[in-house]
Amino acid sequence: MSLTLDGGQTAAPVPAAVQGYWGAVFGRLRRDPVALVSGIILLLIVLAAVFAPWLAPANPFQTSMINRLQPIGSSGYPLGSDELGRDVLSRLIHGARLSLLIGVMPVINAFVIGSAIGIVAGFVGGKTNSVIMRVIDVFYAFPAVLLAVALAGALGAGLVNSLLSLTIVFIPPIARVAESVTTQVRSVDYIEAARASGARSLTIIRRHVLGNVLGPIFVYATSLISVSMILASGLSFLGLGARPPMPEWGLMLNTMRDAIYVNPWVAVLPGMMIFTVSICFNMLSDGLRSAMDVKL
Amino acid sequence: MTNSQSLSRHDSLDRGGKAQPLLRVRGLQKHFTIARGGLGRQASRVHAVDGVDFEVYKGETLGIVGESGCGKSTTARLLMHLLAADHGEMIFDGDPIGQRGGISVREMRRQVQMVFQNSYASLNPRMSVEDSIAFGPQVHGVNRRESRQRARRLLDQVGLSPSLFAHRYPHELSGGQRQRVNIARALALEPRLLILDEAVSALDKSVEAQVLNLLTDLKQEYGLTYLFISHDLNVVRYISDRVMVMYLGKVAEMGEVEALYRAPAHPYTRALLSAMPSMNPNQRTEQAPLTGDPPNPIDLPPGCRFCPRCPMVEEACRAEEPALEACGTAHQVACRRADEVMAGAVPVKRLSEESPT
After folding, report:
1. Minimal Cα–Cα distance from B196 to chain A, Å?
2. pLDDT in tens, chain A (296 residues)
3. Which stretches of chain A sit within 8 Å of chain B by CB?
4. SS3 string of chain B?
5. Residues of chain B neighbouring A14 (CB-CB closer than 8 A)
């Protein structure tokens, strides 16, 4: 019998396809009906946004003073028309582009930056952690809307600046979640064991911390997408984000708010889109959380 | 022969020959500050490990026993440099660790590995068993394929079939299987000294016995040295060559296992041993061998720290802390009245002596 670690004994053959952790997660996610339906709806909306010019029946900017505030189902206006006589269906399809961008981009950016800050703070611990987190707390102390408006105002109006200000708004909450999850993980024995095997901090973060920490942060971040979309529409309303006549759901909801007395079903359509997308993201993040929980 | 090949790695690292202790610890001390001093308040400190000296000889198993809170696990963590010691010197095979002219902490960690008590918490839940074992070698520059092969060989060695277990995750394993994986992980770096911190304590008795036998086999195959920390006196007696008894961060007694178990020289050791349930019904003790709790490690009594619970305490004990002194061959004790204790003067009440039934 071979007694050495490097000796001649041949190890058993490796099975051909090794299903990784993420493969297993997606397998479980596929079997969750709610998450599956949410995912399909989101996918359809994303596809609609991508192929908007080919899908939209009319030009979203084409106004018509005669055909203002048409109800749902009028000829030529399947989902009615808005206060300037533009086709609401076309504007909803085109609006998906901007609304998704404005809802998702700040969260993605904040996810990357906030996680990095939080994980480093949580992993290093001690005084460094306190200093970083107190600075984060200063930002966190402002109400999100106020901070977004103040930053967007200070940076100047415009789509890019509103994306930037929303990113800054979402960094503190994500960093806080990242820090608390990392602090928990850091004190578990397998991190000590990794340290005891001589690994450097960066290696430990990469191989042992990230995998156990990114899941909860990611789930939290997806739940922020809906908040981001609503905040973005608020900025648009104030003239700090998307501007008329750009089709954007939040902006549409705001400009059509007077029509709610005349044509309520058309007026709430953009709001329903925001609602649907938010709910779908939340459901998907819920499903993702249970799918990523290996202990289930 | 492959056996000599495996030992040759150790031989090439062996510096001082068989007589030089593999690990020599001098004045190891760690105090935890639990409340900061400030505004004139005195900082409170827990004296977790309070000046510990010992040697671990090549090829032996040194058992460390003591009740919970006596500093066993802190000692282990200090040895691995997972905690920074306040004071003290650790010399690994003649080389001071982490000092100029010695070996680096990183190099030490290749030669000293540790198995933790909590088999579940010490494995990354997101890593397959194979990856967990292969992590250490990869950190030290072994390529991915080779380290995985090594992981599979080690799984086989600890009695887990690689084809069945390599791709499993920790939550799919039983406690005993997980602890085998932990042992394989510790061995993956081909260490010379293995610290087993309550490694079998959480396992049920039959599994514990299997793992103990596995440890004995592995020790022979790889020429390992063990530092075996446990609160279970029977297990320590079974596996150890020498025992060190700790009480409140200090060494109370140290010696060859059989000699120490037969004739303990410290009242604390004696009390511990008499607390072991006897298989003979006529020898069962009636009352607790020790009364009271250990003193608060924040606020230690002056003099010998065993005073408040010692059945043979005298005035001098309260005044001056006894040093660890030799009392017979390879037997050291920190007690003023060690000779009397060895002679059996400690009043340990037994059922058979007190009230015949």
Report:
1. 12
2. 444 444 333 444 434 334 566 777 788 888 889 999 999 999 999 999 999 888 888 888 888 888 777 787 777 788 888 878 888 899 999 989 988 888 899 999 999 999 999 999 999 988 999 999 999 999 888 888 888 888 888 888 888 888 999 999 999 999 999 999 999 999 899 999 999 988 899 999 999 999 889 888 988 898 888 788 878 878 887 778 777 788 888 888 888 888 888 888 888 888 889 889 988 988 888 888 888 776 54
3. 2-9, 11-15, 18, 21, 188-190, 192-200, 203, 207-208, 211-212, 294-295
4. CHHHHHHHHHHHHCCCCCCCCCEEEEEEEEEEEEECCECCECCEEEEEEEEEEEEECCCCEEEEECCCCCCHHHHHHHHCCCCCCCEEEEEECCEEECCCCCECHHHHHHHEEEECCCCCCCCCCCCCHHHHHHHHHHHCCCCHHHHHHHHHHHHHHCCCCHHHHCCCCHHHCCHHHHHHHHHHHHHCCCCCEEEEECCCCCCCHHHHHHHHHHHHHHHHHHCCEEEEECCCHHHHHHHCCEEEEEECCEEEEEEEHHHHHHCCCCHHHHHHHHCCCCCCHHHCCCCCCCCCCCCCCCCCCCCCCCHHHCCCCCHHHHHCCCCCEECCCCEEECCCCHHHHHCCCCCCCCHHHHCCC
5. 148, 166
Within 8 A of A2 by CB-CB distance, chain B residues are 2, 153
Find the CB nearest B114 among A9, A21, A196: A196
Q: pTM here?
A: 0.79
ipTM beyond 0.90? no
- Tell me yes or no: is domain B3-240 CATH 3.40.50.1370: no
Query: Are A11 and B190 within 8 A, CB to CB?
Result: no
CATH 3.40.50.300 range(s) for chain B read 3-240
